[in-house]
Amino acid sequence: MMKTVLYGLGSQSDTLPLVLINCDEDAGRIYDLCIEMGSPEFILAAISGFDWNRDLSPWPCDPVFKRGNAFEGKADAYLSHLSDTLLPQIEAEINGHNKIVAYRVLVGYSLAGLFALYSACNRDLFTKIVSASGSLWYPDFPEYILNHPLSGNVKRVYLSLGDKESNTGNPIMKTVEDNTKRISQILSEKTDTFFEFNEGNHFKDPELRTAKGIAYVLKT
Known about the structure:
Layout (H helix, E strand, L loop, with lengths): L2 E5 L7 E8 L4 H10 L6 E6 L3 H4 L19 H22 L3 E10 L1 H12 L5 E5 L8 H7 L8 E7 L13 H13 L3 E7 L7 H14 L1
Parallel strand pairs: 2-3, 2-4, 4-5, 5-6, 6-7
Antiparallel strand pairs: 1-3
Helix pairs in contact: 1-7, 5-6
């Protein structure tokens, strides 16, 4: 069952950015880290309870590990549910606290980072995008980004990757660094795009990496 938790409703400002994150990470810690980094005030809407391989994958893909699950490619259905149902509910609750949404940011780590970029190609809802250690190894995704430009509403994109993430024997996942660099180059020709490496593999400091991305797009 999907669940949404809001952070930042006690902020002093009446008009605030809305940061949506699809996550299994500790969203409260992500919010606190952003504030510690000097981020402007914002509202964080943390969505959980979705099926990662089904809801966040843009098209079907075979398992990348022998004992792994296939990717069902139902991102379009989840994106419709997010835009038509979840987002109106979230913003109604925010308005009920006498707050106004200034603009929206879509954030994700791993497959959720892939979904954030995919969503920005298919909806005009978001002004800023954060893909932290995004699963940009996903087959054919650089070509998709090349042929399906981001919405013109997107003004800033943040990409990051662990500097050891491509150090794997898996032939698909080892493409993540080259793919991320290529996607960064493609996006930079159309919008303000920033890419940085973090230390470690894919599983190191996900909350910190995510918070860095949020703080960056909110401060710049």
